[in-house]
Amino acid sequence: MGGAFFASYLIGLRDGLEAALVVSILVTVLARAGRGDGLLPLWAGVAAAVVCAAALGVVLTYVATSLLSGVRLELFEAVTSLIAVTMVTWMIFWMRSSARTIKSEMTGKLTTALGLGRAAVAGLAFIAVIREGVEMVLLVFAAAQAASETVAPLLGMIAGVVTAVLLGWLMYAAVARVNLGRLFTWTGALLVLVAAGIIKYAVHGFQVAGLLPGSTTVAYDMSGVIEPTSWYGTLLAATINITASATVLEVTAWLAYAAIVLVLFFRPAPKRTPATA
């Protein structure tokens, strides 16, 4: 349970913190503009996004547990895993490039939305939160399938979101000074490793379904060293999907994704040169 809980906690913390940061910016802009009338539609948009994200989780769980089995289930889980990894990879790099300008961007969008009416404010809040919610649900669902657990990932995600909301409130109240750049950097790096594990799980699903070769070509077998039911075996499998045995293609996919994305993620941002007349 510990490994599955930690992986989902990290996902909930990261995505929840991004959503909380955006919402706190929107609330601050409304407060400074004296537009208290925009708070109700803003929170309505946030609530609608949370409900839609939760509904997506219920649908995914129902489909996986009630409608599918065997090869179809393997394919479903593999495809949802790839979608989740694609979304989290895009979001990690988007947050890295937008961290410095997100406040001005959201302020501009909210100013425009206020001019269009309450529905526009609710729509802006909904869009800002739903993308984080969908990504979080897909990632936690994929992590839960890889860990063959349901309760621990759900509890971990909820705990991560609660922590993120608390940090968001502290940031808004100016009680705590959080180095967001450093926080997003290290949580992003850890999420890359979690995503690499989900890629490995997706490859395993495609191999079981017969769509990828090499299901019998084992890269390593450490079952005599790593006990799958031990605390460390569960932790490794549930967080970054390091299992007692794996195929060559699974290991290749894990290493390739982790290496390429981490190099790009930690690569220094290009310096902007001032435009010359």
UniProtKB/TrEMBL annotation:
Q: Where are the transmembrane segments?
A: 6-30, 42-63, 75-95, 107-130, 150-171, 183-203, 242-266
Where is the protein localized? Membrane
Q: Which domain of life is it from?
A: Bacteria
Report keywords, A-Z: Membrane, Transmembrane, Transmembrane helix
Which GO molecular function entries does the Swiss-Prot or TrEMBL record give? ferrous iron transmembrane transporter activity
Keyword Transmembrane recorded:
yes
The reply to whether Hydrolase figures as a keyword in the UniProt entry is: no
Q: Write down the membrane topology.
A: Multi-pass membrane protein
Query: By its UniProt entry, which Pfam families does this protein fall under?
Result: FTR1
What GO cellular component term, any one, is given? high-affinity iron permease complex
Q: Which NCBIfam families match?
A: EfeU
Which protein family is named in the record? Belongs to the oxidase-dependent Fe transporter (OFeT) (TC 9.A.10.1) family.
Q: What is this protein called?
A: Iron transporter
